[in-house]
Amino acid sequence: MNTSLKIKIALVIIGIFLASIFFQGSLGGQVIFSKTIEFENVPLPSPRSWKLVDKLEEKEDELEKLQLTISTNSFDFYEYRTIQSGNKITTNKKKLSEHNKDIGFKIVNKDSGEVRIIMVSVVVGKDGIKLISPPGYQIEIEARSNGIKWNKWNTAYKIISPEGWFVLENRYPIINDKIQKVTIQDKKGKKRTANKKVYSIEYFTYSPYSPDLHFSELVDEGKEYLKRVVREALVDLKERRVYSRTDPKVLVADLESMSANFFGRLPILEHTDMTEFSEDPQRSTERVLVLIGANKEVAFSKTGSSAGALGWVQYTSKTYKAIRKAYPSARLIEDFEVGASDHLNSMKAAILLYDYNLKPLIEKKGFNVLNDPRLEEYLAASYNGSPKWVFQSLKSSIFGSFDWPTKLKNETKGYLYKIRYLQDKDLP
């Protein structure tokens, strides 16, 4: 065989080999392009030479020493919010109120890990919030996909310049006013009682979520913290010998039908926005985990709803009082606001509420419900809405079919939509 023929044969073999790689990648989805698309929502990796959690402790004293001012008067402004309810999406104009104030920022350089403390001023105008950044900085508020811009201590900030920096924490002043009875003396020397408004300032340090803070390190921290609190809550209930209403001989913590995952999912269910969750469930779920991982004990501790629900598992005062009365041996914190803000205490209350709702569920469907793969859905729907809606929905369905939640409100249906995603991904 001559040399030129050998060269031709070699070129043909190489061509066939390259073609096979190309077609294998195109048809089998094994080339780098497909992997990039598949994992495009994975959070940013942790920094190379430093840990983000270590920066949470750095320069805390300097942040706390900032002299922050706040006005006693508040000013109204409006934002447009996108709300998804079932298959319907609406845009509403929401009225907000805020005080002019200074906010302390702890900012971090993404590459070097350098930490700086700066102060930004908030000025409320008719068109919303305006930020006045220190010299050399340009900082803006990032709008979420649901339209939320200003979100108090959890507002998302973007540092435009200098480049490569992000907000890790903000020290946020909150003004409280209370009416107190005081004794005053009039011009004639007579004393009388009058009402006087007394102001006090509270400072709250919090890591606000932003895309720049979305590191896998904090996602993992959030998962581990959730599991730890649930585990400690179950241990505490067991040590206090808190018995189930379903079976008075069995401790609540020993009920095999209720998995610890039921309770670890609750903060995620309560604090994922349905509009954002529909768009990107992974990103929405990890947003909550990032906030928990960064803020630990204070995550969502001051979050309240228009319905009066408070804390990371969104308890209401009326329900909290009923559960305290039903389970005295649990020794839940008496004060509702304190108890709902405390992670361990509120998680215990959530576990007990699941047990509380389990008894009427068994009475309606029998003990076979304990082995029903939809048990978490029934209990979560009862937690979010009311057991009566669950019973009506089950009654209207055929033997509790897959589409059983026909009578539930759209908010609760959204709750179940989230649960099925979290179950599928085995989160947290």
Secondary-structure topology with pairs:
Elements: H1 3-28, H2 32-38, H3 52-55, H4 60-64, E1 70-85, E2 88-109, E3 115-125, E4 128-132, E5 138-141, E6 157-161, E7 165-185, E8 191-206, H5 216-239, H6 260-264, H7 266-271, H8 274-279, H9 281-295, H10 317-326, H11 336-341, H12 343-365, H13 375-384, H14 387-396, H15 410-424
Antiparallel strand pairs: 1-2, 2-3, 2-7, 3-4, 5-6, 7-8
Class by alpha and beta content: alpha+beta
Distance between the termini: 66 Å
State mean pLDDT (0 to 100 scale): 87
The helix-strand sequence is HHHHEEEEEEEEHHHHHHHHHHH
Level-2 CATH architecture of the largest domain: Orthogonal Bundle
Q: Give the CATH class of the largest domain.
A: Mainly Alpha
Helix run count = 15
Number of strands: 8
Shape: globular
Largest β sheet strand count, sense and barrel closure: 6 strands, antiparallel
Helix content: 40-55%
Walk me through this protein's architecture.
The chain has 428 residues and is of the alpha+beta class. It has two domains: 52-172, no CATH class; 214-424, Lysozyme, CATH 1.10.530. Helix content is 40%, strand content 23%. The strands form two sheets. Strands 1, 2, 3, 4, 7 and 8 form a six-stranded antiparallel beta sheet that branches. The chain has a two-stranded antiparallel sheet with strand order 5-6. Helix 10 (317-326) crosses helix 12 (343-365). The protein starts with a helix and ends with a helix. Residues 5-14 and 16-40 have low confidence and may be disordered.
